[in-house]
UniProtKB/TrEMBL annotation:
Gene3D superfamilies: 2-enoyl-CoA Hydratase, Chain A, domain 1. InterPro entries: ClpP/crotonase-like_dom_sf, Enoyl-CoA_hyd/isom_CS, Enoyl-CoA_hydra/iso. This is Enoyl-CoA hydratase/isomerase family protein. Pfam families: ECH_1 (PF00378). It comes from Halomarina rubra. Belongs to the enoyl-CoA hydratase/isomerase family. It comes from the Archaea.
Length: 246
């Protein structure tokens, strides 16, 4: 259900369930986390097979979670603390999203078609989101009594601002690629996102690996600037011969 290809600095990870619009099963979440953890290439390109990027969580998996939970919120075995199936399901997706965000590689989501719910949330965890004209995005959870719990309430406001995040999450409406670009949900709209992945891979691989965590850091400004200076010094030393003028 996942296809992985390594070539010329890019690991291409394809969600490969086109008959289910690449809906994510628990096994796919685990495989995706493994695929982005310490990959052999400096860039990971995440895409979907067929006409959709990702429809979100597999509805059969969601139904299994609901079946394991009683109407008052208790689990069917009476344990509401460590083994709550709904909380465990959310945490499972969160772990995969964190694996994407924490990957040593630069992770680019190429959205060509529909991204819904958990598919949007996995894209939010990526370092870059690049769309085609066919891309659409929606956090549809509220339309059936849920919301995006794979880190969506954390990352979406950070990326598009609180107002846009409120609009998308509370309305459940879909936005096209142009509107997604205007609100900062994607950084580019191109014909083929794979070209952007190859463009990234043409850059210095050590610089890519070192600058990503600086941009991801949530520490204080002083600590981030100190880290920035240290990384810059390391890269200058590494590239001293190439940088030195005759």
């Amino acid at each position: 259900m996942l296809r992985i290809e390594d070539s010329a600095g890019v690991r291409t990870v394809t969600l490969d369930r086109p008959e289910r619009r690449n809906a994510l099963t628990p096994a796919m979440l685990d495989d995706l986390a493994a695929a982005v953890s310490d990959p052999p290439e400096p860039v990971v390109y995440l895409r979907g097979a067929g006409s959709a990027f990702c429809a979100g969580a597999d509805l059969d998996a969601v139904a299994d979670v609901a079946a394991a939970t009683t109407t008052d919120g208790d689990t069917t075995d009476g344990d509401t603390t460590d083994t709550d199936p709904a909380a465990a399901f959310a945490e499972h997706g969160q772990r995969t999203a964190r694996a994407i965000a924490d990957s040593s590689a630069v992770v680019l989501a190429g959205i060509d078609g529909a991204a819904r719910g958990g598919g949007v949330e996995l894209a939010l965890a990526c370092d870059l989101r690049v769309a085609t004209d066919a891309a659409t995005f929606a956090e549809t959870g509220v339309t059936f009594g849920l919301f995006g719990a794979w880190g969506g309430t954390v990352r979406l406001p950070r990326i598009v601002g609180e107002g846009n995040a409120m609009d998308l999450t509370l309305s459940g409406r879909a936005v096209d690629a142009d509107e997604a670009l205007r609100m900062g949900l994607v950084s580019r709209v191109v014909e083929d996102p794979a070209t952007v992945a190859r463009e990234l891979a043409d850059n210095d691989h050590a610089a890519l690996e070192r600058v990503k965590p600086l941009l991801r850091s949530r520490g204080s400004d002083d600590d981030r600037e100190t880290a920035e200076a240290g990384v810059f010094a390391d890269l200058v030393a590494r590239n001293a011969d190439a940088l030195r003028r005759d």
